[in-house]
Amino acid sequence: SSMFGPPAEPPPAAPPPPQTAPTIEAAQPYRVLARKYRPQTFSELIGQEPMVRTLANAIERDRLAHAFLMTGVRGVGKTSTARLIAKALNCVGPTIDPCGVCEPCVAIAEGRHIDVIEMDAASHTGVDDVREIIEAVRYAAVSARYKIYIIDEVHMLSRNAFNALLKTLEEPPA
Questions:
Q1: Which residues pair with 148 in a beta bridge?
Q2: 0.85 exceeded by pTM
Q3: What does the alpha-carbon distance between residue 79 and residue 84 come to, in Å, rounded to a whole number?
Q4: Which pairs from 98-105 meet CB under 8 Å and 24+ separation?
Q5: Cα Rg for the chain, rounded, in angstroms?
Q6: What is the Cα–Cα distance from 21 to 19, expressed in whole angstroms?
Q7: What sign for the dihedral angle of Cα 142, 148, 154, 158?
Q8: Which of 42, 55, 61, 99 is the most exposed place for a label (fewest CB within 10 A)?
Q9: What is the pLDDT of residues 94-109, one digit of tens each?
Q10: Residues 6+ apart with CB under 8 A from 104
Q11: d(Cα 72, Cα 77) in Å, to the nearest integer?
């Protein structure tokens, strides 16, 4: 016995935490918000109803232009629209409402479709870069209905590169 009385009983032990399997999230690569929330269907595209209706009419009547030119300030959906057009034309259809699950739709959404070529003209400004496109345009699509070139930031091309591209746009190969 001590001068302060009998020793105190130890506090009751806390119950052990429930045993659960540790959750490990799959490592997701970082994606810029604009890409993460990029519209995947025309119905998700905000503010472009007239263009969507025009494109729907062209698809329904099978009267498609050989080139589309998108203009506007940053963030209005030019590249997103171009990708949606690629999906719409190469989906098992073609249709204004691409399914998003067939192989062409998935490959285009992931940026790995062999017949949908995206070029950043801001970093590929020369005639040689455009010449690669001009030479490849002669060949038909490999696995899709249409071969589509998306040239982003086309205003950054050099004068000579733009003139070379313009010639191909004016007189596309048969």
A1: 116
A2: no
A3: 9
A4: 98/41, 100/40, 100/41, 104/143, 104/144
A5: 27
A6: 7
A7: positive
A8: 61
A9: 889 999 899 999 999 9
A10: 87, 90, 91, 92, 113, 143, 144
A11: 8
